[in-house]
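hey
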Protein backbone atom coordinates (compact mmCIF):
# COMPACT_ATOMS: atom_id res chain seq x y z
CA UNK A 1 0.00 0.00 0.00
CA UNK A 2 2.83 2.34 0.88
CA UNK A 3 4.43 1.76 -2.54
CA UNK A 4 1.13 2.52 -4.22
CA UNK A 5 0.87 5.79 -2.30
CA UNK A 6 4.43 6.70 -3.31
CA UNK A 7 3.70 5.88 -6.96
CA UNK A 8 0.50 7.92 -6.85
CA UNK A 9 2.42 10.83 -5.34
CA UNK A 10 5.09 10.62 -8.04
CA UNK A 11 2.44 10.46 -10.76
CA UNK A 12 0.64 13.48 -9.34
CA UNK A 13 3.90 15.45 -9.11
CA UNK A 14 4.71 14.58 -12.74
CA UNK A 15 1.25 15.64 -13.89
CA UNK A 16 1.45 18.91 -11.96
CA UNK A 17 4.88 19.67 -13.44
CA UNK A 18 3.59 18.96 -16.95
CA UNK A 19 0.53 21.12 -16.33
CA UNK A 20 2.66 23.99 -14.99
CA UNK A 21 4.96 23.76 -18.02
CA UNK A 22 1.96 23.86 -20.36
CA UNK A 23 0.47 26.87 -18.58
CA UNK A 24 3.63 28.95 -18.85
CA UNK A 25 3.34 31.54 -21.61
CA UNK A 26 6.12 32.48 -23.98
CA UNK A 27 7.16 36.15 -24.08
CA UNK A 28 7.04 37.28 -27.70
CA UNK A 29 7.35 40.33 -29.93
CA UNK A 30 5.14 40.09 -33.02
CA UNK A 31 4.50 42.30 -36.03
CA UNK A 32 1.37 42.13 -38.11
CA UNK A 33 -2.08 43.42 -38.98
CA UNK A 34 -4.94 43.61 -36.51
CA UNK A 35 -7.83 41.71 -38.06
CA UNK A 36 -11.35 40.56 -37.52
CA UNK A 37 -10.72 36.81 -37.84
CA UNK A 38 -14.26 36.05 -39.01
CA UNK A 39 -13.87 37.86 -42.32
CA UNK A 40 -10.17 37.07 -42.69
CA UNK A 41 -10.54 33.31 -42.12
CA UNK A 42 -13.83 32.68 -43.91
CA UNK A 43 -12.79 34.88 -46.84
CA UNK A 44 -16.42 35.86 -47.35
CA UNK A 45 -14.92 39.14 -48.52
CA UNK A 46 -11.51 40.77 -48.70
CA UNK A 47 -10.78 40.61 -44.99
CA UNK A 48 -7.62 42.66 -44.86
CA UNK A 49 -6.31 46.16 -45.37
CA UNK A 50 -8.00 49.51 -45.90
CA UNK A 51 -10.80 47.81 -47.87
CA UNK A 52 -11.85 45.96 -44.74
CA UNK A 53 -11.24 48.67 -42.14
CA UNK A 54 -14.87 49.69 -41.57
CA UNK A 55 -16.10 46.11 -41.45
CA UNK A 56 -13.36 45.17 -38.99
CA UNK A 57 -14.50 47.95 -36.66
CA UNK A 58 -18.11 46.74 -36.87
CA UNK A 59 -17.06 43.17 -36.17
CA UNK A 60 -14.89 44.17 -33.19
CA UNK A 61 -17.64 46.34 -31.68
CA UNK A 62 -20.11 43.51 -32.31
CA UNK A 63 -18.07 41.10 -30.24
CA UNK A 64 -16.05 39.14 -32.80
CA UNK A 65 -12.71 38.30 -31.15
CA UNK A 66 -9.91 40.43 -32.54
CA UNK A 67 -6.73 38.84 -33.82
CA UNK A 68 -3.33 39.69 -35.13
CA UNK A 69 -2.13 38.06 -38.33
CA UNK A 70 1.60 38.10 -37.92
CA UNK A 71 4.31 38.18 -40.54
CA UNK A 72 4.71 34.42 -40.09
CA UNK A 73 1.13 33.97 -41.37
CA UNK A 74 -0.16 32.70 -38.02
CA UNK A 75 -3.26 34.23 -36.43
CA UNK A 76 -3.06 35.15 -32.77
CA UNK A 77 -6.35 35.71 -30.95
CA UNK A 78 -5.98 38.67 -28.60
CA UNK A 79 -7.26 37.94 -25.08
CA UNK A 80 -5.99 41.07 -23.39
CA UNK A 81 -4.88 44.41 -24.81
CA UNK A 82 -2.50 46.48 -22.75
CA UNK A 83 -4.23 47.52 -19.51
CA UNK A 84 -7.71 46.35 -20.58
CA UNK A 85 -8.64 42.83 -19.56
CA UNK A 86 -11.29 42.31 -22.22
CA UNK A 87 -10.84 41.88 -25.94
CA UNK A 88 -14.58 42.13 -26.60
CA UNK A 89 -15.61 45.54 -27.97
CA UNK A 90 -12.47 46.96 -26.42
CA UNK A 91 -12.16 50.65 -27.48
CA UNK A 92 -8.37 50.34 -27.65
CA UNK A 93 -8.56 47.40 -30.02
CA UNK A 94 -11.28 49.05 -32.11
CA UNK A 95 -8.98 52.06 -32.60
CA UNK A 96 -6.25 49.91 -34.17
CA UNK A 97 -8.37 47.72 -36.44
CA UNK A 98 -6.52 47.01 -39.70
CA UNK A 99 -3.40 48.77 -38.43
CA UNK A 100 -0.01 47.20 -38.57
CA UNK A 101 1.36 46.90 -35.03
CA UNK A 102 4.44 45.68 -33.33
CA UNK A 103 3.41 44.24 -29.97
CA UNK A 104 4.99 42.53 -27.01
CA UNK A 105 3.07 40.07 -24.92
CA UNK A 106 2.55 36.57 -23.65
CA UNK A 107 1.75 33.81 -26.10
CA UNK A 108 -0.31 30.81 -25.00
CA UNK A 109 -0.55 27.88 -27.41
CA UNK A 110 -3.49 25.53 -26.81
CA UNK A 111 -4.84 22.79 -29.04
CA UNK A 112 -3.25 24.29 -32.13
CA UNK A 113 -4.53 27.82 -31.41
CA UNK A 114 -2.52 30.92 -30.54
CA UNK A 115 -3.75 33.27 -27.83
CA UNK A 116 -1.99 36.52 -27.11
CA UNK A 117 -2.04 38.78 -24.06
CA UNK A 118 -0.67 42.06 -25.41
CA UNK A 119 1.24 43.93 -22.74
CA UNK A 120 2.58 46.74 -24.88
CA UNK A 121 2.13 48.24 -28.33
CA UNK A 122 5.71 48.97 -29.36
CA UNK A 123 4.80 50.57 -32.69
CA UNK A 124 1.54 51.51 -34.42
CA UNK A 125 2.21 52.00 -38.13
CA UNK A 126 -1.42 52.68 -39.07
CA UNK A 127 -3.02 51.05 -42.09
CA UNK A 128 -0.19 49.75 -44.24
CA UNK A 129 -2.15 47.51 -46.64
CA UNK A 130 -3.94 50.00 -48.90
CA UNK A 131 -6.28 47.97 -51.09
CA UNK A 132 -9.67 49.78 -51.05
CA UNK A 133 -9.16 51.36 -54.49
CA UNK A 134 -8.47 47.94 -55.99
CA UNK A 135 -11.25 45.89 -54.37
CA UNK A 136 -13.69 48.47 -52.99
CA UNK A 137 -14.83 49.09 -49.43
CA UNK A 138 -15.97 45.78 -47.94
CA UNK A 139 -18.68 44.56 -47.86
CA UNK A 140 -20.87 47.19 -49.53
CA UNK A 141 -18.60 48.69 -52.17
CA UNK A 142 -17.62 52.32 -52.89
CU1 LIG B 1 -15.25 42.04 -41.71
Amino acid sequence: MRILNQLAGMLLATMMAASAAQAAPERVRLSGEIIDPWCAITEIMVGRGSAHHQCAIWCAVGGIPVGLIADDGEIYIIMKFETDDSSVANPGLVQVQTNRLVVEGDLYRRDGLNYLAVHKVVDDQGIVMVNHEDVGIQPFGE
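The pocket of copper (II) ion is lined by residues 36, 39, 47, 52, 55-56, 59 (CB under 6 Å). The CA atoms of residues 31 and 128 lie 12 Å apart.
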